């Protein structure tokens, strides 16, 4: 198994939710992490919570919808830690509405964040990952293969992200870069205005953010000759309503 200590991870949307859970799992393995958020205050607050005696977290302000933001965040990560070994494209949002009510603004924000934002993250980090022969992970969703009512924007973004990730894997493996997409179902996070702290007992059946973090650690520790390129993750039991 690969030793992750002193490696560096770059995580978009890492100040809360799945991104924070992944950052926590990696910090516990001795990995230095850079986490981004559109709010510098949120990023720095999360980084302070994450930093340990064995690894450091760096909080950065960056909007994945802005290519220059992503390029600058990668530069700051390299300046701080000297390298980038792992990139986790996690930042995402969801607007759910019938097509009659879905606005162009909601459509564009969903596609620009969930899909174009990942493209910008790849373009910004690719040269560093070539140097480290690193690992790129995208956080898609079961909504990337399963459609549902009021999901036109979100389904389109996640179906696109799943396809993008698999094609990316074929493009970059010649450089020794691994690519996986993780496709979670119901996860207990702040997504779409949810409050997991307030509903902790009611959401115990859901996937927890630390579970996704554990999957990421396992992927990074796997022998490089083997690549789980697409991973679907579901709660093991349904909600008992």
From TrEMBL:
Superkingdom, natural source: Bacteria
SMART domains attached to this UniProt entry: PKS_KR
NCBIfam families (UniProt xref): PRK07326.1
PANTHER family: 3-OXOACYL-(ACYL-CARRIER-PROTEIN) REDUCTASE, 3-OXOACYL-[ACYL-CARRIER-PROTEIN] REDUCTASE FABG
Lineage, broadest ranks: Bacteria, Pseudomonadati, Bacteroidota, Flavobacteriia, Flavobacteriales
Positions of the Ketoreductase domain: 7-191
Identification of the protein by name: NADP-dependent 3-hydroxy acid dehydrogenase YdfG
One GO BP annotation of this record: monocarboxylic acid metabolic process
Family: Belongs to the short-chain dehydrogenases/reductases (SDR) family.
Species assigned in the record: Mesonia phycicola
Pfam family, one: adh_short
């Amino acid at each position: 198994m690969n030793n992750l200590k002193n490696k560096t991870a770059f995580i978009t949307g890492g100040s809360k939710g799945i991104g924070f859970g992944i950052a926590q799992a990696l910090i516990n393995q001795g990995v230095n992490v850079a986490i981004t958020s559109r709010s510098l205050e949120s990023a720095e607050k999360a980084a302070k919570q994450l930093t340990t005696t064995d690894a450091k977290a760096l909080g950065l302000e960056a909007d994945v919808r802005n290519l220059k933001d992503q390029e600058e965040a990668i530069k700051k990560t390299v300046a701080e830690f000297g390298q980038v070994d792992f990139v986790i494209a996690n930042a995402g949002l969801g607007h759910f509405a019938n097509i009659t009510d879905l606005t162009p603004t909601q459509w564009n924000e969903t596609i620009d964040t969930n899909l174009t934002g990942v493209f910008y993250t790849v373009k910004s980090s690719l040269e560093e990952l070539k140097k480290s022969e690193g690992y790129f992970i995208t956080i898609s969703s079961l909504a990337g293969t399963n459609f549902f009512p009021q999901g036109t924007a979100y389904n389109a973004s996640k179906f696109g992200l799943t396809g993008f990730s698999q094609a990316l894997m074929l493009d970059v493996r010649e450089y020794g870069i691994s690519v996986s997409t993780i496709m979670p179902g119901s996860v207990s996070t702040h997504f779409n205005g949810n409050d997991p702290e307030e509903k902790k007992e009611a959401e115990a059946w859901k996937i927890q953010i630390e579970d996704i973090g554990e999957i990421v650690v396992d992927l990074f520790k796997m022998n490089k000759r083997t690549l789980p390129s697409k991973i679907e993750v579901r709660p093991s039991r349904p909600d008992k309503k």
